Amino acid sequence: MVASAAQRRNATIYTAPDGAFRLARDPDVVRAPDAAFVRWDRMPPKEERSGDLPVAPNLAVEVVSPGGTRREVAAKVALSLRLGVEMVWVADERSRTVTVHRRDREPGVLSAGDVLDGEDVLPGFRWPLSDIFR
């Protein structure tokens, strides 16, 4: 569904492990979110796309792993936002929630009955949480 919305919006989707992003150099900071979206206008030229992409994704998606801690996820989110990611979605299957993180506002927690919205990062993308957590 994200890929379909991205194609309609002139974007591309990358997923880990091939979707590693170099968010900073010296020291190097490389992250591979569970899924990510980058607008084509931010993509480096094709010849520079081997290995880690030297650009922050517009959207990063992290799925809370069964062994993961809230502290680990919070650290990933904070670093991603600080280094240029516009929006991070954190999906937690245990609580059946998605937390939406943006640099310019407090996180919002979505649950059953809510709709995940791509906002200005992925305009037109809307996905009911009831469809995500079946």
TrEMBL record:
CDD domains in alphabetical order: DUF820-like (cd06260)
Q: Which domain of life is it from?
A: Bacteria
User: Where in this chain does the record put each Putative restriction endonuclease domain?
Assistant: 13-129
Q: Pfam families recorded for this chain?
A: Uma2
Record protein name field: Putative restriction endonuclease domain-containing protein
